[in-house]
Design a protein that fits this description.
By secondary structure, the chain is an alpha/beta fold. The protein is built from 8 helices and 12 strands. A 5-stranded parallel β-sheet has the order 2-1-3-4-5, with helices on both faces. A 4-stranded antiparallel β-sheet has the order 6-7-8-9, covered by helices on one side. The structure holds calcium ion. The site of calcium ion has 6 residues, from loops.
Length: 226
């Protein structure tokens, strides 16, 4: 097994490398996100252990760039304890697993072995439905080549549609996906926000993507709009 450890804390990186070596695992160290980017492309690593806190590029960004460029080497994200946001961002960006600091080296080894057994399969972190593309981690949306700016609520709603393209979603399902619990469920917010999405993603491009399903709710066409 050959591992790349991306960690700027020199003592920590050396300790990990020693422990891996003792377990018969070859490990290279990268102290910067930029170094990690070229090293992963240059060598055949079985797993990348990627710290979120790096001096140049944040580890989540490194992960996202690798996935965007079609590199599917398994990645374990290392985050600070309780940094739930980082873990969610990491998984959204295409990481396979995460460890929180401080972690036992035995646990790292177990996770490495589990990941190395898996094939590196293509799992695009971006959602694509026809000409609609949504990057959950970067919070960006495109219709074809044009980036479309959405509010947080519009984004959450579109993400729900794109994760269930071709399926009719009820008002309640859409409310659950994009609104928190305190929201007034009898109001027509879903209708209003679907209108906003159509105004940004369909009308300017002369297409229809979100269809009204009478008596049920709405459906994003599987072709993303035509
Ligand atoms: Ca660090």
């Amino acid at each position: 097994m050959r591992i790349l450890v991306v960690e700027d804390d020199v003592a920590m990186a050396a300790a990990i490398k020693r422990a891996l070596h003792a377990a018969g695992v070859v490990a290279d160290i990268a102290g910067l996100g930029d170094d990690a980017l070229w090293m992963v492309r240059a060598a055949a690593y079985d797993v990348v252990v990627l710290d979120v806190g790096l001096p140049d590029l944040d580890g989540v960004e490194v992960c996202r760039r690798l996935r965007q460029s079609g590199v599917w080497t398994p990645i374990i994200m290392v985050t600070a304890r309780d940094a739930v946001v980082d873990r969610v961002r990491g998984l959204d960006a295409g990481a396979d697993d995460y460890l929180t600091k401080p972690f036992a080296l035995g646990e790292l080894l177990a996770r490495l072995r589990a990941l190395a057994r898996r094939e590196a399969v293509e799992r695009p972190a971006c959602l694509e439905v026809g000409s609609l593309r949504l990057d959950p981690a970067a919070r960006r949306v495109w219709r074809g080549g044009a980036e479309v700016s959405l509010t947080a609520r519009e984004f959450a709603l579109l993400e729900a549609f794109m994760r269930h393209a071709g399926q009719a979603l009820t008002h309640l399902q859409l409310l659950d996906a994009a609104w928190d619990f305190g929201y007034e469920h009898r109001s027509n917010v879903v209708e209003v926000y679907v209108g906003y999405l159509r105004g940004k993603l369909d009308t300017p491009f002369g297409v229809t993507s979100i269809e009204t399903v009478r008596g049920v709710g709405y459906r994003l066409r599987e072709d993303g709009g035509a």
